[in-house]
Amino acid sequence: MDRRQSLEKYGLYDSRFEHDACGVGFVCDIKGSPSNNIIKQGIEVLNRLSHRGATGADPATGDGAGILIQMPHEFFVKVAKKEGIGLPAKNSYGTGLVFLPVNEKERVFCKSIFSRELKSAGLNLLGWRNVPVDNSDIGSAAKASQPSIEQPFISGSIGIDLERKLYILRKCIENSIRSSEIKQKQFFYITNLSSRTFSYKGLLMPQQVENFFLDLKNSALKSSLCLVHSRYSTNTFPTWDLAQPFRFLAHNGEINTLRGNINWIKAREGLFKSRALGENLKYTYPVISPGGSDSAAIDNAFELLVLAGRSMPEAMMMLIPPAWQQDNLMDKGIRDFYKYNACLSEAWDGPAAIAFTDGETIGAVLDRNGLRPARYIVTKDNFVVMASEVGVLDIKPKDIILSGRLLPGRMFYIDTKQGRIIEDAELKKNISSQKPYSKWIRQNLLEFDDLKTANSKSPSSKTPKLDSFSTLKAFGYTREDLKFIIKPMAESAQEPTGSMGNDTPHAVLSKKPQVLYNYFKQLFAQVTNPAIDPIREELVMSLDTYMGPEKNILEPGPEHAMRLRIKRPILTDEELAKLKSVKRHGFKTKTISTLFSVSEKNGFTKAIDRICAESVAAIKDGFTFIVLSDLGIDADNAALPGLLACGAVHHYLVKKSMRTQISIVIQTADAREVHHFALLFGFGAECINPYLAYESIKRLIEQVELKMDFKSAQKNYIKAAEKGILKILSKMGISTLQSYRGAQIFEALGLSDEVIKRCFTGTVSRIGGADFETIAKEAISMHQDALNRMKIEFPYLATGGAYQWKRDGEFHLWNPDSIAALQDAARNNDYKRYKEFAALINDQSNNPTTLRSLLKFKQTDSISIDEVEPASSITKRLATGAMSFGSISGGAHETLAIAMNRLKGRSNTGEGGEDPARFIPLPNGDSKRSAIKQVASGRFGVTTNYLVNADELQIKIAQGAKPGEGGQLPGHKVSVTIAKTRYTTPGVTLISPPPHHDIYSIEDLAQLIFDLKNTNPKARISVKLVSEIGVGTVAAGVAKGHADMILISGGDGGTGASPVSSIRHAGLPWELGLSEAHQTLVLNDLRSRVRLQTDGQMRTGRDIAIAALLGAEEFGFCTACLIVSGCVMLRHCHLNNCSVGVATQDKILESRFSGRPEYIVNYFNFVAQELREIMADLGVRKLDDMIGRTDLLEKNNSIVIPKFAKIDFSKILYKPESSQPVFCTQAQDRCIDDILDKKLIELTKGALENSKPVKISLEIKNINRATGAMLSGEICRNFGEGGLAEDTVYCKFKGTAGQSFGAWLAKGVTFCLEGMANDYVGKGLSGGKIIIYPDKKSGYQPDKNIIIGNTCFYGAINGQAYINGLAGERFCIRNSGLYAVVEGVGDHGCEYMTGGRVVVLCQTGRNFAAGMSGGIAYVYDKDKTFKGKCNLDMVELELLDKDDCETVKNMLTSHYKYTASKAAKGVLDNFKTEIKKFIKIMPIEYKRILDLTEVADG
Amino acid sequence: MGDPKGFLKVKRQAMQYRPVCERVKDYKEVIAPVWASHSKDQASRCMDCGTPFCHWGCPVGNYIPEWNDAVFTGKWQKAIDLLHAANNLPEITGRICPSLCEYACVLGINDDPVTIRENELAIIEHAFKAGFIKPRPPKIRTKKKVAVIGSGPAGLACADQLNKAGHNVIVFEKDDLPGGIMRYGIPDFKLKKSILDRRINIFKKEGMVFKLNSSVNIKPKGFDAIVLAGGCRVPRDLNIPGRDLKGIYFAMDYLTQSNMRVRGEKIADKDLIDAKSKSVVVIGGGDTGSDCVGTANRQGAKCVVQIELLPQPSTCRPPNMPWPKYPLLLKTSSSHEEGADRKWSVNTKEFAGENGRVRKLMCVSGDNEFEIGVDLVILAMGFLHPEKTGMIKELDIQLDNRGNIRTDDNYMTPQKGIFAAGDMRRGQSLIVWAISEGRCAAYCVDKYLMGSSGLPIL
Fold this sequence. Notes:
- Chain A: Keywords: 3Fe-4S, Amino-acid biosynthesis, FAD, Flavoprotein, FMN, Glutamate biosynthesis, Glutamine amidotransferase, Iron, Iron-sulfur, Metal-binding, Oxidoreductase.
- The structure holds two protein chains of two kinds.
- Chain A is α/β, with parallel strands linked by helices.
- In chain A, the strands form twelve sheets. In chain A, strands 43, 44, 45, 46, 47, 48, 49, 50, 51, 52 and 53 form an eleven-stranded mixed β-sheet that branches.
- Chain A is built from 45 helices and 53 strands.
- In chain B, α14 (287-299) links the parallel β7 (279-283) and β8.
- Chain B has a five-stranded parallel β-sheet with strand order 3-2-1-4-15, with helices on one face. Chain B has a five-stranded parallel β-sheet with strand order 6-13-7-8-9. A three-stranded antiparallel β-sheet of chain B has the order 10-11-12, with no helix packed on it.
- In chain B, α3 crosses α5, α3 (36-43) runs antiparallel to α9 and α5 packs antiparallel against α6 (76-86).
- Chain B folds into three domains: 6-129, Fumarate Reductase Iron-sulfur Protein, Chain B, domain 2; 145-233 and 385-450, FAD/NAD(P)-binding domain; 237-381, FAD/NAD(P)-binding domain (3-Layer(bba) Sandwich).
- Classes of the chains: A alpha/beta, B alpha/beta.
- Chains A and B meet through α25 of A and α4 and α6 of B.
C-alpha cells in the first residue's frame, strides 16, 4: 500500500474530493487539412498555458498534460510496419495508448484479458506496439508511478460501428481488470480506443509532453486539429490516468453535482437499450467508471450518448444546457429542445469549459454561468485557436479576422468536413429541429400548475389520531422552532437571520434527542469552483422538477415528454392531494406509511425493510409516484425520520437500477427548516409535503403570533424555504434543483457506516457514530415524551435552546458561567479565575460539545515549566479573527488591534477596509493598524495603499458561519465613517458577492496570490478556508499556488449576520479540517512550505494544544476576544442593537463599549500560560515540536455518553509518515523575481524617486501577468494613497497582456495597451488610467471583437479606463469609483457596482446592473434591446439630464482621444441626436441618497 | 422581543408604593396596583438576550424573556403558561423575591435592569383577574401516594408538581393553616394572606389534600414516598449577658404572633409581644429584621433601631461581586422607608434591665462604646437548621454537618423513599430557592416512583 492509499484508508484524505482546474485549448484547421504544424502549435498552446497548471513538492512532476489529435493514420502505418504490423485502411482499425503494469507477469495478464475480450467482441488484434518514451526529464513522483505504455492495433469493423465495438471492448476490459486480483491494478488504464482520434497524455508538465512521447517529435505526425489540456489539480497524488484529454473531451472546471449524476446514470442503467450498441451494452456497466475524476465521469456519459447515436453538440446540450428556464430571449424551438431534454436528464452542473472532438469536428461549450474563460481567434488562413487565454500563440494582428469568447451556455463548433465554423444559433436551431420537440412537449408534458385542483379531501383533513400539539411534541418541535424558524419564514418570506457562532454540541454528542437532519453538514464551494449569487443571478437558478417514470434515454421519442413538470416542489396539502389525483399517462400514486411499531422488537429496521420492499412492489404494480408518509402516529406507532425513509428508499432503488421508474414524494412531519428540505432533495426526494410545519403555522395564527391569514403565511413560508434551498444549492455552485437532487452535497458528522451504507450511500462520514439502534432510540424517545407521559399536561413545547442559551435547553459552551468567569478573569487580571473559566470550557465530560473535548493528552514525562518557551513567543502565534469595522464598532475594532500589536500577534481588518489614519502609530507607541488586511469578495476598501500597509494579506475564501455565501450591509448601517473606509457612498447598501469573481478555480486563486504578492512583496499571503471534506486537497492546491499560510476555520465560527441554518449546519469542526489539511500536506511533502492556522470557537490553552497536536502552528480567536471586550452573547449583532457597544454602529450604544486592550492582553497571556503548563506536562519545550504530534492524543474513554462510544477518532489522529519537517520551515518560492514589473520599476526610477514624468514603451505577452501591480505598490509606499500626478508614469504596451493587467494601478500611472488583454484587467484599480485599443494593423471591428477578458475592473476604487473593444462577463463588477468607457460588455455588467460611471457604447449581455446599488451607467441603446437585458431589481432606467449629458460627452471625448473609437466619434459627431439614444441606469437607493445630499447641500 | 430598541426608548420605572403616611396605618399591602400598560412598557425594555442571564440567575429558571415578550404583545395567557411552567407560586415571588434575576439582567451592566419581578407580578395578577387560573386536576391518577411534610414554599411547590404528575399527594402541616413561613413569617403588608389562600384553594380543588395541625406521626409504610420540607426554623440566638431578661424575642415568634393578630386572633396578654409606644431594637440587618421593623412601626413603636454586626454594604456593586453575581448591597426596603435608625458594624455586648425587663443594650462600634435604650428587642439573626427533635428524630433522619438533612443528588435521604427539600435540606435561604428545591425534589420523586419523569427539571 503506498502512502496515498494508507492515508485514504486510515486518515482523513478522500480522493473523491480531488479537484482540478486547468488550461484547456485547441487549434484547428477549419478546412480540415492535416499538418504537423497543427500539432506543433497545439503543443505551443499547451506550453503557454503552463502557468495554469501546477507542480507539487517535486517541481518536475506536473499534474498531468496531454493532447488529443486526429488518428495519424499515415504515421501509424509507418511505425507499425517497423513492428511488423500491417495496418488496414484508414478508419478500419482502432488504436490507443494503454497504460500497463510494470510488473511483467501482470502486464502479460492484462494483455491476455485484452485478447480474451477482443475475441468475444469479434474483433482482431493486429499487434501491440511499444510506445517510445523518454522519461529523462520527468519528475521522480511521475517516474515512480510511470506505467508501461503500449499501443494495440485492432481491426474487425469500420467507421462508427468500429467505434462502438471498441467502446464496448474497452469497458469490458476495464471491468475485467477491475475485478481481477492483480496488484498493480492502478497502473492499468486505456486512454482511448478509437479509429478516429488518438491521444498522448500522462503525468507530465506541459513542456514535458513533447519530450516524453517521442512520436511527437516526428514530423510525419499530422492532424488538422489538436485538443490540449494542462491540469492543475489540488491533487496531492496526481495519477497518470487522470491526465486529460479523455476519449472525447478536455474539461476545465468542476462538476458540482457529480455524486448525483453518477447515481442517476446508475439508476438509469436498468432502462438503457441501444440499437446502435446492441445487447452487449449491459456488460459495460457501470457507465461511469469508478475512481475517475468529475471530468472523466462526464466524458463517460458523453461517450455513451454519442456512441448510442446522438451528435456531439446534441449530447453536450443535454449534459450542459444553458440557463434556458428563464431566458425569454431564447428561440422557442431551442427552449423546447432543452425542456424536452430536461425530462430525460438532469444537467451536469458546475463551472465548465469543455472542448470536445471526434476527430472530424471540434467544439467547445461553456457552462450556464460562464465561469470559465474561453477565448478564440480566427485567422484569415482558416486557422482557429481556442484557449482559456488569449495570447497562447503568436498570431500576427493583421491575420486576425475574429477575436471572440465563448459566452455562458454557448457552443463554438467547427466542422472540418464542411470546412466552416457553425454559429451557436445555427447549430442549436438545427439540432432543435431534428425532432418535433415542441410538439412532443405540447402533447405530453403536463404542467402541474395547469391541472385542476383535486376534489378529493386533502391528506391532513383525514382525522389525525393525535392533536396537533402532541404531534408537534412527538416530532421534537420546540418553542424555538416556532419562534426563530417558522414564524419569520411565514411572516416575511425570508430565511431567519442570526448572529455569533454555534457553540452547542454536535448532534452525535448532544444529550438531547436529535432529529436526523442535525447529523448532516452542508458542503460548499471553496476555491475550486465559485458559489453563485442566487438573488442577483437568479436567472440561472431553477427549482423545476419533473415527475413520472423515465424511459430509455438512449433513444429519443415522444414518450420521454410524458412527465409532469412541477415548478415548486414543496407542496401544500392541497397540492399533494392534487398530485395524487393525477391519472394521465398512467400516473398513479401509492402511499407508503413510514410508521413503525415502538413496541415491536427491531420495529425500526423492519420498517425500513418494509418501505423498501413496498416501493419495489409499487413499481412492479405500475405505480409511478410513491408518497412516503408519516401521517397517523399514535401511542404505538412512531415515525421513521423522514430523511432516513427518503435515503433508504432512494438508494435501494438506485442500487436496483429502478429509481428513475418512480418519483418519490416525502410527506413528513419532521421537516421544517430549509436545511431539512435541502437534505431531502439532496438525498433524492422529488417533492416534499411538510404538513406539520403548516400545522404549526396555523397554531401561530391561532395564538396571534402571526397576524395574517393562513394562505399568505403558508405561501410566505414556502417562498422562504425555496429561497433558502436556492441559497444552499448556490453555495455549492449548483444552479438547478434538478441537478442538486440526489447529489448528496453533505457530510455526515456522527453517523455509523451501517446507516451511511444503507441510506446515504457514498456520503462521507469520518468519525462513525450513531447506528440504527441509536437513531431509533432518539426517534422513540421524542415520541414517548410526547405520548406516553401525556398525563402531565404542560401547555407548551420544549424550550429548544439551540439559538439562545436556556437552562433546560441545549448546552452551550458560552453560557452565563463561562462568560462571567472569562470577563472577571480578563478584567481583573486574575489567573485563578481564568483557570476556573478554562475548566468550564476544557472539561466537557458532563456536556461533551466539541470533538476535542473527547480527546485527552497521553501521559508522558513532564518537564519543568521553566524549560518551556516563554509566553511572549507563543502570543506571536495568535491572531484575532476577521471581524470588519462595520460588523463590530470602531472602539472594539481598534481595541483588538492595539492589544494584538502589544502582544506582537496579529489583528485582522475583516472585509471592511481600514482607515489610513490607523496606519500611523500613536504617540504612546501603540498602534491601531491591523497587521492582517483581508481581501474578501466585496473588495471594500482594498486599495493599493491598504495592501502595502499589511504584514499579511488574507484572501477570505469562506467564513465559518456562512461558507459559500455572500453578505449584505444594508444601507442604513453604512454610516459616513463606514462609507469612507469602504470607499463607498453613505446610505448605499453594500453587497459582498458569494464568490470572489476573480477566483473561480484553483488556478485563479494562484493568480490572485500572485497579484497580491506583486503589490506587496513583503506581506505574507494567507488563504482562509473552512473545514469540510476535501479541504485537505484544496489546501494542497493552495500550497501549490504559493500561499504562505493556510487558515482552516471551523464551521462553528461567529458572524455578524447570517442565515441561522448556515450558522448551524454549514461547515465542519476545525479538528477534522485541520487534521485533514495537515495529513494531506505532509503526505505531499508540501507541509514544510506553508504555515497552518486554525480558528473557530477557540477559547483556551488546551484548545491551542489540541490544534497544535493536530497540525496547526498558529491560532485565531474571535468570539472569546469579544467576550473579553464586554460581549455577553446577546446574539443581536444583526440588529445593530448590541447593548454593550461591541457589535453596533449606533453612536449611543457604541459609547457603552467598555473593553480595553489590557483585558485582551491579559486573556492571551493566560491562554499562553495555560498552554505552557500543558506543554510542560507533555514534556514539550517548543511549540514547533508539538505540531502534528497526534501520538500524544487519545480518546478519553472516561466520558460516558451513549452515542460517544461509537465515535472513532483514528482517522483524525492518524499520523502520516514523513521524512520531512511537519511544520513550516521554508519560504514559498515567490515567483516574482524576473517579472516585467522589475523592468518597469527600473525604467520609472525617475518617477519613483522624484516624481519626474516617465514614458516607456514595451512588448507584452500573456505570460506577463499582474503587470503594474508591483510598480503601483512601490508608488504607494513612496507617495502614499495620493500617488503621483496624472500621467507621470506613462507605459505603452504592445501585444497580448496576461491576466490582471494593471491590477491595483496607482494614481499617476497610465497603461496604454495596443493589442488585447486577458481576464481581470484593472482589478482594484486605485487611481490609475488604463487605455486599451486593438492593434492598429488588425482589421477587426472593435464593436464585434473581444479585447479584454472577464471580470475586468473588479473592485476598482478610482481611476479611468478606455477600452476600444468588447469586454467579457462582469465588467466593472463592484466598481467603487472608476470612470470607464467600453464598446460592449458581456453578461452581468456593472454587477454589485457601488460608485463611479460606466459608458457602454454598444451591446451589453444579460443581467446588467444586478445588485448595483451605486454609481451610474450609461448605455447607448441604438437598437432598443437593452431593457430586456437589464436586471431591474435595484435600478431604474431614466433619460439623461443635463449633467449626465455633460459627463457622457466628456468621457466619450477622452475615449476618442485615447483610443480613436469610431463609435465614440459617431456619437460625438451627432451628439444632440445620439445622446437621446442613451439610457441612464440609476440605482434607486443611490438616487435617493444623492437627492438627499443635494437637498442638504442646497 | 417586540421592540428591539425598547430599552433605548423606555426608562426603568419601578413599582410605586402607597405613601408612607398612609401605609403605616394599616397592614394592607404596601405596593400599589400595577397597570397593564405600565407593565407593557417596562417589558419592552427586555432585550431577549441570546444568553439570558436573568433566566440563569433565577433559581427556578423562569422563562423571563419569553414572558416579557408576551406581556409586551399583550398575550397574557401565553405569559401565564410560561410563568407557571417554571414557578408554582409566582404571586409570592412576584411580591417578595429579592430578584436575583434583575441583578443578572444584561441591561443592568450599563443601564437599569428590567423590572422583572414586577412584570412577573403583573402577569399572575392579571391572570387571576382575567380568570385564566382555574383548577386543572390531572386527568390520570397514578396509584402512588406521597406525603409532603411542610406546606411552606418548598412543600407546596413539590406537592403541586407531584399532584400534576398524577400522584396522590397529602400535605402535612403542623400549624393550623398551610403556608409555613409565607403565612406566619411574612407580614401582611408585604403579602396579604388572601393571596396565599387563593392559591391553596386551587391546589385543593386540583386534588391536593392538606392535613393541618398534624404533629407528624407518619408511618412511612403508608406512603410510596415522603418528602420532608419542614423548613429551617431553629433561630440563631444571641448569647450575651442579660439574654434572659424579658422583652427579648426571636423574630419568628414576633412575626408569627403579629400575623395571627392581623388575622383577628386573640392573644393572651401574657403572651403578647407588642411594640406600641416602645423603643424597639431589631438585631439583624436582613429581610426578617426589615419585616420586624415594618411590623413594629405599624404597632406604633416609639422608635425603631436596627443594628447589624457587619459594616454597611455599598450602594453600588462592589468589584468583588461583578455582574451577573447577586451582590450584597445596601437595601432600603419599604419598611426602612417607614422609619428606622439603621446602625452598622455594631457589636452587641450586653443587655441590661430593670425588673427583669430589658431596658438597655450595650454596644460597641469600633472604639466607640454606646448604649441604646430599649423596651423590646427582636432577634432576627437568621436560622441555624431544622428542628432536630420531632419528625427528624422519629424517622431517624441523617443530618449533614451543618445540621440540615443529608440527601444524595436526587434529593433522597439515605432512607429509601424519603426525600427532603427546601431549607430543611439546604439551610436557610430564599423562598424562590425553596420553590426550586420543591420542584427538583418532585422530579426526583416522580422518577423514583415511575422510572422516568415528564416533569420539567432545570
